[in-house]
Amino acid sequence: MNNWKLEYTGLNPAQEGLREALCTLGNGYFATRGAAEESEADEVHYPGTYLAGGYNRVKSTIAGKVIENEDLVNWPNWLGLSFKVEGDKDWFSLERCRVIHYRQELDIAQGVLRREMHFVDPKNRETNLVSTRLVSMDNLHLAAIRWDFKASNWSGSICIRSTLDGTVKNEGVKRYRELNNQHLKTIERGETEEGAIYLLVQSTQSRIFVAQAAFCQVFEEDMLVSAKRKTKQEAGKVSQYYTLDVHQQKAVIVEKKVALFNSRDQAISDPLLEARQAIAEKVSFTTLEKKHVQAWSRLWKRFDFAFSAPENSQLLLRLHIFHLLQTCSMHTIGRDVGVPARGLHGEAYRGHIFWDELFIFPSLNFRIPDLTRSLLLYRYHRLNAARRMASKEGLRGAMFPWQSGSNGREESQVVHLNPESGEWVPDNTYLQRHVNLAIAYNIWQYYEATADTSFMKFYGVEMLLEIARFFASITTWNKNKERYEILKVVGPDEFHTAYPEADQAGIDNNAYTNVLASWLLSHTLNGLELIGESRKTELIQKLGIDKGELQSWDEISRKLFVPFIEHGIIAQFEGYDQLIEFDWSGYRKKYNNIQRLDRILDAEGDSVHRYKASKQADVLMLFYLFSSEELVEQFGRLGYDFAPSQIPENIDYYLSRTSDGSTLSRIVRAWVEARADRDCAWHCFRQALASDFEDIQGGTTAEGIHLGSMAGTVDMLQRCFTGLEVRNDVLWLNPRFPKEIDSLKMQLYYRGVWLTLNFYQQKCKIEAKDGNSPPATIRFKDQELPIQPGKTELINF
Fold first, then answer.
1. C-alpha angle with apex 440: 437 to 445, nearest 5 degrees?
2. Distances (CA, A) of 320 to 28, 347, 499, 535
3. What is the pLDDT of residues 576-601, one digit of tens each?
4. How far apart, in whole angstroms, are the C-alpha atoms of residue 7 and residue 792?
5. Calpha distance 698→681 (Å, rounded)
6. Residues 722, 759 contacting (CB under 8 angstroms)
7. Nearest-5° angle of CA 525, CA 530, CA 536?
8. Do 492 and 553 touch, CB atoms closer than 8 A?
9. Whole-model pTM?
10. Which one of 40, 466, 494, 673 is the catalytic residue?
11. Does residue 494 carry a catalytic annotation?
């Protein structure tokens, strides 16, 4: 097995959408799905090109109401490349041919997509065609396609068509198709003096200009062919036609290079001018590919995890890293963009940014911390929008939205379509205020990994203060409990958005939210002490914080209410113990897949609100985010007795009541199982590894990969199985690998020092290099090791 190549053989129309998503190519600036160049959007194929931060809003009428949705726009399709033989009516399509051989290969190491096709057309002409494609990781604005074409048993005249198509719509998610999906208008199209075609479009509301320019060259056995060229302009698209003779068994090479710029790029005058200038350079495909492969090689030196494990585990992990880096890379740094939950791979979730960063940032923190910093600034730049949202609700501080897009307003759906019942129902998931806690946690984790006090001084602590102020303002004092409460929110488990029969959305005292709020308030106070007295004074003055407010945060952090059921079992929320136990075995027999139990019950006229049933890990998230030491300390701060011995009981209780309707849930399940049941942990880890590859949710991956889950599997190796965490300026290791993993090698960039960690045979060799920072302190059990650049240490475990 080649652990660097994802391979498919044979055509499979039912699987094409999945293949297109998994074979997406991107560079952190834009990405294009792995659709065939000759295809157009239909029930099988869906070419899609997505730009980081490329959003637009349109209005639709639903049930007599006008609603506005913001989408990650499907920008013009630059892939268009096809041919037809003289005298034929139809352009090339494999579906109309007898396919002798078909092989599709995604080279993960090189970032190159190849298709090998050997086919016989309806007139018995036999042809070989090899397509090679890249989206440059070296030059963020360039992409290219190379066709190697050979007529096996015939000669004749052919016409090659190259197109830039701006007539595309957002049609990649079936349940959204009833809504307005027209986002683009064509501004300009044409042909340059040098023979390139170009297209300029603008989004209808956000007014983002995107320019594409394409240039084709045709070679016969490495000699440039002077093909007859004609350009045709149609509504919303521009095409170029090349007519030439092909000869039996002689190779014809077609190279199509494309440049893409947008009006929000840095250091440009006009996107169309820039695109035309870039394409005029006429760089060869070979040169583009060489530089592109070198750029990927540099990334893999930072990000690769080499580990010995069964089946295709190594391949799938690399596939996950690959898609993470295609969504956010070096090219993302300095751009005002976040991380869409479904990557730049499709239109599911409308390309919005949720809390998935919680699962994504750990991999970036230890390899490209500047990238995490830039992505955290996406939140900082929307701090004023979050302040306005809080103020609108009569609250203080900053309330970040559950779903974020262009400018930080709440982008969550007002209603959503239940595909089981076919009805539009209210969507109350916007009440997941814990997204704010995730942002705060990400800020702190970034600081722990980097010791970047400059970021904390000027951005991080200000966000912490405003989020802390928000949570303090949503707490209320319950004199009967003598505790503070947080009412009418939704936790990570999206099944319970209200109490049974309630006419008001939200649940009370979600344990995950309350414990994290306590953590937030205490760590915000600690953060103030990190940044120095002068900056502390500036921030307190700027935000109008007085000593009494800080004291109240300390008090709330010690007196927030956390509900318990019995025997140390944390209640998911207050009143959870009054819900009915669900018939899990009965429904598993009745339905093939019960991951989305809410939709099933709704279609039956029932409600998941009545049952002890979770879509995804909720209470379990506490054991995912915190080590047992941290969790016991946090509960102690709250005045609750909670011992490490109670953790396994809590895990067992909630695992048996969770449907894992989210791919993120498998990450959390695998993580918490790793504390007690290594066999089960490996099984869950494998499930998470294969979740998109096998499309275990039955069609969702075709709409866009699940980036949080993919990055979460990387973090399973990085932190969970190695026991790696940063606490109190110490890098802790506590390795406990499943028996299926024989060895692991990875690199970390920790506080200015590159560390290479080799785990094998109950030992870990740690090498430090490339740094002039103070020695990194690593602790394993009772061993404390100062790791300095140029030093190697060996830990036995």
1. 120
2. 14, 19, 38, 40
3. 999 999 998 889 888 878 888 888 98
4. 39
5. 23
6. yes
7. 70
8. no
9. 0.96
10. 494
11. yes
